[in-house]
Amino acid sequence: MPMETVFSVKPFLAVLVSLIAIPGIISSRSQNIRESWTFAAAGIKLVLVLSMLPLVLNKGVVEYTVFQVFPNLGITFRVDAFGMLFALVASSLWIVTSIYSIGYMRSLDEHSQTRYFCFFAVALSATIGVAFSANLLTMYLFYEMLSLATYPLVTHHQDKEARSSGRKYLFYILGGSIGFALPAMLITYHFTGTLDFTGHGVMAGHVTSGTALVLSLMFLFGFAKVGIMPMHSWLPAAMVAPTPVSALLHAVAVVKVGAFSVVRVFTGIVGTGVLADYNISLVVCVIASFTVIVASMIALSQDELKRRLAFSTIGQLSYIVLGVALLSKSGMTGGMLHIAMHAFGKITLFFCAGAIFCATGIKYISKMKGIGRRMPITMTAFLIGSLSVVGLPPCGGFISKWYLVLGTIEAGHIAFLFVLLSSSFLNAAYFFPVFYNAFFCSPEEMLFEDKVNEAPLWCVVPLVITAGISVVLFFYPQPFLNLAKLAVQNVLGG
Amino acid sequence: MESIFSLVLAKANYAAYIILMMIGLYAMIAKNNLIKKIVGMSIFQTAVILFYVSIGCKKGATIPILRHHGHPEPVGHAAENAGAHAMDAAHGAEKVVAHAVDAAHNAVHVADYINPLPHVLMLTAIVVGVATLGVALALAIRVYNTYGTLEEDEINQQLRSG
Amino acid sequence: MTRHLPALIIVIPLLSALVTSGSGWFNQKAPFRIAVSALLLSLLCAVLMLIQVVTTGIAMEYRMAGWAGPMGIVYVIDHLSAIVLVVITSVSCLNLVAQRKNIHAEFKDKQGAFNALYVLFTAGLIGMTATGDAFNLYVLLEIVSLSGYALIGLGNTRAPLATLNYLFLGTIGATFYLLGVGYLYIATGTLNMAELTTMIPKLMDSGVILFAFIICVTGLFVKMALFPVHGWLPDAYSQATPAAAGLIAPLTTKVTVYILIRICMTVFTPEYTFDHLDISGFIVLVAVVTIVFGSLSALAQKNVKKMLTYIIIAEVGYMVGGFFLGNRLGISGAILHIINDAAMTLALFLAAGIFIWKTGGESRSDLKGLFAKMPFTMAGFVLAALSVVGVPPTCGFFSKWYLISGGVQAGNYLFVAALIFSSLVNAVLFFRLFEIAYFEPFGEDEDHAHGHGNSHGSHHHVGALAIKEAPLDMLVPFLAACMALIVLGLYSGTIITNIIQFAIPTGVI
To answer: Where do transmembrane segments lie in this chain (chain B) (predicted)?
Structure first.
């Protein structure tokens, strides 16, 4: 099927727009002007991304080369269905998160807000850059840029805890990318002579099965943002960050960049053929399943809400890897779709955690008895978010999980079906007690006085929006579903 | 055993420079006093100078100032030619054959003259050596002014305690 | 005019060194101005020559005083030397401009002398790069060394002793080289590099040539501080004044590596160095040890400047190892790294100069709170550090790219592992500094007051609260150096295909 390739500067602009806003953010005299720069950048970014959507849905591709570093390799952007899916999620959630950031940062009177918004903008540029990159070099560039831009965000509080968490964060993320991903990339380049993402991968015929397996695992663990065990422990540590950071970066941008990179490399570099022929996919499935189950079990034991969410994220990320590694049509669709569905669900949950902290200063689940009576909107949104993450209707998460389940059957690996089902059960087990505690408790157990109220409007509105979108996505998953299906078509053909 | 002995005797210049070089190196490494180290350094450099000077020498040859055998030439030209010959002579035996073809009719016998080029080079090397010595001594004076001693172990002791 | 560029590029700084030292008697500001303009002119010459060499594709040859080679001294500007000349002159020029305030403060009435030495040192480096004569190279090597000793010796109270040790080892290295040249002369009867190239292939089995090679290369290893003869470097460089360190640290080792490449490729020919001799594997191993040792030692340092000097040692290992991989990728990486590492080291030492100027101390803890106090300087410092770590799109990433590719191609995974290891250690090193600068608030330290024993004579320690961004005339050149890191990175493909590719003989694949 002929694909229409359009050469346009738009993808580059979409990446650049938040960087351009930075001087504006730094030089602004008042908070409001500063935030309007952020919104302007976020809005333009979303518009730019959306403007490419129709073309991509028509199986077109947008391409732009910024700089030809090597004769056959440059800093090049290419927007295809999968990249578009991810970019759409990230750029739309940036707007919501910006609203939330304002509410959160101002109500807690955080220091260095300018720095915060600056690096947020850089991180978003990097995220879109990863989504749109046409080859592994470009992706690696933006991947590293994201790692570094999030460091000041993770360590925003600049205290001892932030310092040790930041150290852990860098150790895993930079250690993984420099220690594993970089050599894997160069070895791949040596064997294949190219790093472009293609539909069928570039490794076929160039490497032996052993090399392919080693390289695949190096990529899987090297892109440590995906949090495959044992490269996961940075994620709970990074929860020291202010909640909007955790929300956008550690439920959406950073971790999904990891998942996106792994999927991209598996499909575009290693190739589904190589994955299947050398049984690499099975190895990856097993590793991912292990992470899914273990992370869910650890989540059960966490009392701090954000940490519980973090471990939940680790498990959910492995769903994506698992789904794609199943190599069946539905499984891959489900995996890619899960990037979007989980993003909206999880960001809602983080927003709720932050709103609770804003309003009451409480971080621990055991101290949240009865909070639903005082903050009904927040806790209802929390319910919707957790339904979505568990994968129950009427939420978007159901759709992706449905495809994942279908995928396991299609691939003929019933064992992984049990992994998915038992993990869903575990998800339910660690989310519903939160909700139950919040609403159903006797008046004596109630820990909150009457004066406790909902968080500021700037905090509540975003979480209502994302919860709403989660529900809407159940009924209208088309934009994301179509993109995911297209992406799978590009990879599997037919 | 005899053959080694005769080899050393035949190439006494090499043996000499190597011995000198080792003496210098030993002084630089093992001596405690900075001035003695500097002296060692000078010996070390001089050894190489000796090596160079010795490789230019030939048995029975004389200094390379040409006496003209060939047909008379205008003075200026002759001087220039002489320079060229002198330089060519520098070229080690086998090279000269190739390079001095155009000058062959002048019939300069290379074997009659020592090779001046290594000697000329060593003029420069000597200058370099003297300069190095000067800098080294100047630094030693500053070290002495700072620590009041030139013994390395005493200086190190001061550094450790201070 | 263009014909004389190879002479002008060295004659201008050489003569102005003379003028500079005298002019200090008459005018305080004159030496600096003369030095800067001389270096700018040299830079101009270098750029013009680079353009000419790249456009024509032919090396420029200049006969000094009209004497033809092989008797006269010939200066040869080919692709390799042209690019290195541009690096030398631009680094030297940028550093001098950036350090003006430092020089003023350090050498109040000795500015003439300092600037003269500075220019002389640069002239020596230029000569070393441009010359096509093996003995002339020795003389210029010693000019560089002697002026380098003087520059370093002008540092703090510990400097003379460190310099003396440097002088001993430097003399051993240079003398070894001289000895090697002597044996080359015995075997071939010439000192002209171009002529040596044509004669070596016939003499490949000669023991004299082998001995000459080993002695020459050993001498150069001493000069470039390869493990285990690296001991002089950290002491000497870290005791030097910022202005001198900013010149010597980025250039000396890099130019020596260039000389190594020149000797091995132009004089001894790649066939001899890589194919005929069976030592490449061993030298790569030594380079690997150098990299690991340099990185680990850097980890143990509390003094920022000293840490940087150990990084330099590790980087020497990168270049020597990459070169002795013996394939096109590795050699390209080594040459590219000469350029990139000069720029990175310059940026790092300029940053160190600014820190010392502002805080008066040079230990890790003196960086406390600087992210808040001087954001632009720190941003530049972060960029330079990322380049050393090897994060795209900075130039450090791309030279590492070539070096690792070369290692993979040669199947030398030990070298690849060493590079990766060193990148990771560098990340730890710099993020440890960033942590201090970012997390620890400014001024909270008691031992600061008496921690100054080993720092410089003159202080600009204007009190904790007054510290803010560095003065513009330091900041602008520094940030220019930092931007160069990105520009070099993005254009590294261009540099490789247009310049470095031609610098490597076609026989090397």
So the answer is: 12-29, 38-55, 120-141
